[in-house]
Amino acid sequence: MFIRKLPFLILFLLISTLSISQNKKTFLYAGRIEKLQNDNVILIGTASSVSFNFTGSECAIKLQSVDSYEHHNYVALVLDGKYIGKIKIEKGTVQSFPIKVTSNKKEHRLEIYKNTEAQSGNVLFAGTTAKLTSISSKKKKKIEFIGDSITCAAASDSVDCDKGEYMDHHNGYYAYGPVLSREIDVDYLVSSVSGIGIYRNWNDENKEEAIMPDVYQNLYLTNDHSKPKYDFAFQPNIISIALGTNDFSGGDGKKERLPFNAEKYVSNYINFIKMLYEHNPKAQIVITNSPMVGGERGIIFEDCLNKVKAAFATDKTHKEIQIFKFKPMTPKGCLGHPDVADQKVMADQYAPFLKKLLNEK
Fold this sequence. Notes:
The chain is of the alpha+beta class. Helix content is 26%, strand content 25%.
């Protein structure tokens, strides 16, 4: 009887082994990315990432700045859970970057995060020489952070603001969203663009430049319709929206700037949230003020947020919209932006609020 059962047993084991091997992954991807062939991927959004496990004392990663116009880019590297710095990817062809290991661990994990934002260009991950092992991740709750340059951590990382270009001072890994997400152990996605607003941008009355409601549904956060649409597969538990700093801005003082239009701001915000609900019906929406907008403008800002919340007061199909207020801040980064330390302050303020929301039944 045992001999007759043996072929079936072998077949069962083969099928089980095949199934397990097919479920094993060698790369983990996060954020706004576009998957290509052969495990290559384009990192698009702020703090979008690719991670893998490997053995051995060294490896190399292949990266390229890929843009409609040629310029350099940056990624941040985290090895075995420790931030080891950012690397500059010069314009041009695919480049190879060596990664050396100093610990005696048998297996290592490398995480590669896009430091620059979507509109500062994209980074192609074109593979690695590493001896890959399987990688897995536990299921976590999810938060999406929608915002502008503050959410991008633009102009946050520099000792000399007068040197270099705008993208040189980005550090998306240390933006408040990713920082607090690591603190409360959730997965995150950042959908942010410098200078963007709900009904107008920093220096444009929505005449020449697209606003966030125009670009959000495009994967690359641009109006380039040759690019793929965003697939909304992330399905966050919470969507945090921090938009308004640029709507309230006076611009550069040279280009014509109209007075702030509260009615248009509120109307566009309501329609934007309705669109988000269409794709994420179970999400908890949180709308925030700005630590950069104070005084009389800050009072108007909060009044607008209250009107947006009130517009959904009778909506019984979605969770009640929440408002979070950042404390006023005198930013220490470049061009009047929060620096990395300021981003940590914002993360520490916001994290308990979001954690409580996630834990509520």
